[in-house]
């Protein structure tokens, strides 16, 4: 089927495909474990539940300021993950945290940091702002 010289290329292609599958599986497993781990503090919620219950919470946008100003969930406060340590000081621990990022991946890391800082009600938007269909606001500069 293949000439002798193509065997090396064929093995390389299968090695790359295998590596991609391993990376995907590890990232999926990490997200699955972390989601289960932080379920005791709140956890991942879908867009409808997020929008329905966010009025009683502190809504945090973890994206960078330029993305926040383009468009964000109505009523959200910008606490970029890169400035998390400085900006978390102004948040109340007695109110739930509802947070989101672009895709949902950064929210898992932020949940861990919120938990370590003493917050007990931590929720994040499933699949992030990319999948948000609720009300948004844009800051025009």
Automatic annotation (TrEMBL):
Key word Nucleotide-binding present: no
Gene3D superfamilies reported in the protein's UniProt record: Rhodanese-like domain
Domain of life: Bacteria
Listed InterPro entries: GlpE_sulfurtransferase (IPR050229), Rhodanese-like_dom (IPR001763), Rhodanese-like_dom_sf (IPR036873)
Membrane-spanning segments: 12-30
Keywords: Membrane, Transmembrane, Transmembrane helix
Domain Rhodanese: 53-137
Name of the featured protein: Rhodanese-like domain-containing protein
UniProt source species: Lacticaseibacillus pabuli
């Amino acid at each position: 089927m293949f000439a002798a010289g193509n065997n090396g290329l064929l093995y390389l292609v299968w090695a790359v495909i295998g590596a991609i599958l391993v990376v995907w599986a590890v990232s999926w497993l990490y997200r699955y474990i972390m989601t289960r781990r932080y379920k005791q503090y709140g956890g991942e919620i879908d867009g409808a539940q997020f929008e329905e219950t966010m009025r009683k919470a502190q809504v945090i946008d973890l994206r960078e300021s330029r993305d926040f100003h383009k468009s964000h969930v109505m009523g959200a406060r910008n606490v970029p993950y890169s400035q998390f340590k400085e900006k978390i000081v102004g948040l109340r621990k007695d109110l739930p945290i509802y947070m989101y990022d672009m895709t949902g991946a950064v929210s898992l890391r932020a949940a861990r940091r919120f938990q370590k800082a003493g917050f007990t009600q931590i929720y994040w938007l499933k699949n992030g702002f990319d999948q948000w269909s609720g009300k948004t606001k844009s800051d025009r500069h």
